[in-house]
Amino acid sequence: MTMDWMNQAVPQAQGLYPYVPGKPIEQLLREKGIAEATKLASNENAYGPSPKAMLAMQQAIAEVHRYPDGDSHALKAALADKHQLDAAQILLGNGSNEVLELVIRCFAGLGDEVIYSQHGFIVYALATQASGANRAPVQDTPELGHDLDAMLAAVTEQTKIVCIANPNNPTGTLLSNDALQRFLDALPPHIITILDEAYDEFVCDIKQDSVQHLHHPGLVISRTFSKAYGLAACRVGYAMANANLLEAVNRFREPFNLNSLAQAAALAALDDGAWVMEKVALVKQERTRLELALAQRHLLAGKSFANFVLLQHPKALELHQQLENMGMITRPLAGYGLPELLRVSVGKHEENEAFLQALPIALTRLKATV
Hints:
Blueprint: H1 5-8, H2 25-32, E1 38-39, H3 51-60, H4 73-83, E2 90-93, H5 96-107, E3 113-117, H6 123-131, E4 134-138, H7 148-153, E5 159-165, H8 177-186, E6 192-196, H9 210-213, E7 219-224, E8 237-240, H10 243-249, H11 260-270, H12 273-296, E9 308-312, H13 316-325, E10 328-329, E11 331-332, E12 341-345, H14 349-369
Parallel strand pairs: 1-10, 3-4, 3-5, 5-6, 6-7
Antiparallel strand pairs: 2-8, 7-8, 9-12, 11-12
Helix pairs in contact: 3-11, 4-11, 5-6, 13-14
């Protein structure tokens, strides 16, 4: 007897599809039978973690037979000190993805609505679907940014959460703190706003810190160690919010959700801020170089404020495939409803140079197939 297990699953599983990450280098090497490849698909820090973080992980290995600190006390205290908050205002997660999912699961269920931008981070839609709540995407501005007025107009009695990414992934757009505060001032106090700041380190020199300058009872600010800190594989993210709000969310958190190596690495990385910001400066320098090169070829989709650039081409998916044939992994955005865009992460100078050398060849090969 063959069971139809999908029909046995909860209703929201019917339309739920797993998040698809950027293709790993090893997979492309197998598929194409090539010797080397460059991954510019997942917005990772190509420079890797700081030396202090690597040393801390090596030293922590000796204790892996012990369960980690379930409350991540030392890391939570360090983050509270960094952001001038109480430790109770910090919630740690297995990457910021888990933090987002925990907040949505805690406050949105059947019959509730979660509002997010049409081309915002796809996890908002996935987490909403998984929670059983209704998805309420709002159309972007013409620049592919959040339309805060339209998002505010979309609020109903069923609205429980609004999700905003700033800078936005995958489009790289940026909202000012003034615009965000006007939005928060107009939002009913019982509605939670998740402000996803995974790329905050790339804009901290051009905008005020939202933790101290934005105010709303339901404001939840999430950040990550996966981007600027170079700890993507460690999976460390955190939320900052009202202590009572996070106390409720914490009830949904799995025990020991942050392993001991990750805790040690993140704590050491926080103590190596100068190294992190030095690498951020290099990424921004290389981002400008990539954007100029794409603009010269009339391929630049718009200014990015994160650690990636947007390439626009009418046959973006085919171009992506041609680049893969040459060992260059980019991220098609057709899954976001943007079929003419590729997201290209900023790598090291030599990786970006290899991409720029491969691009005209890929374009020529693409033209030859038409």
